[in-house]
Amino acid sequence: MTNAFKLTDLFGGAITANLPAGYADVSNIREVPDHQEIYLDASGFSSIVIEIAERVTEPPTDDQALRFHFEDIVDEQDSSRVWRTDIASFPNLPQNTPCLTLVATTTPPLTTNGNTRALTPTFVAILLTLIRLEPQSTDLIVTVNIPHIAGHQEPTDRAVNFEEGKFGSLVQEGVRVRDEVWRTLQVKDWGLFDGGKEDEV
Questions:
Q1: What angle do CA 33, 100, 54 make, to 5 degrees?
Q2: What is the mean pLDDT of residues 154-178?
Q3: 47-54/186-187 β-pairing
Q4: pLDDT by residue (tens digit) across 15-30?
Q5: Measuring CA to CA, which residue among 66, 36, 68 is closest to residue 51?
């Protein structure tokens, strides 16, 4: 369980947010695209991805854009389901910034013999948040990925039922991480978004 958070510089300090102290910067291990920051739980399998993307205008609505970004990260071979969507709150962003979130799961296909490979998740819970920065023509996406791998779960995680709202301890911890990012995320340098201007806070 993540007990401590630390203020973390993202994109060279242009954005800051509290991330779990036990999460490691993946760019220290392998190359990460310039438009992404990826942090991985050093003692587990969960990760958080912060991504800068061009603002989606087709489909036209915020709800449709949220679904678009979710579908964009799902492997085409996986089955997926969105369980709930909601409004997100970022107190340090300009007022009236559209922020939406969803809870979803993806399930990889079985192999031909009916088994999945070692360490292949039985499913992955995805907590995706979309921040729509219209003046900057940018969509900022924050995704917490929580793989559920057989043999690496708490007892409560073997009784997860998203339809009944039973998330289990791994997803509840992911929600705590997500909510801390919501609470603390700040844009320090709006020039990160190709010269876009800041709204009034």
A1: 35
A2: 80
A3: unpaired
A4: 999 999 999 999 999 9
A5: 36
Who's near 173: CB < 8 A, 6+ residues apart? 1, 2, 46, 146
What is the pLDDT at residue 201? 41
Give 8's contacts (C-beta < 8 A, 6+ positions apart): 16, 17, 18, 19, 39
The DSSP line for 55-93 is: PP-SS-SHHHHHHHHHHHHS-TTSEEEEEEEEE---TTS
Residue 62 structure tokens:
């915020």
The alpha helices in the chain, defined as continuous H runs, are 62-73, 168-184
DSSP β-bridge partners for residue 80: 106
Greater model confidence, 69 or 78: 69
Confidence (pTM): 0.88
CA distance 95 to 2: 30
End-to-end CA distance of the chain: 34
Convert the pLDDT of each residue in 101-145 to its tens digit.
999 999 988 765 555 555 678 899 999 999 999 999 999 999 999
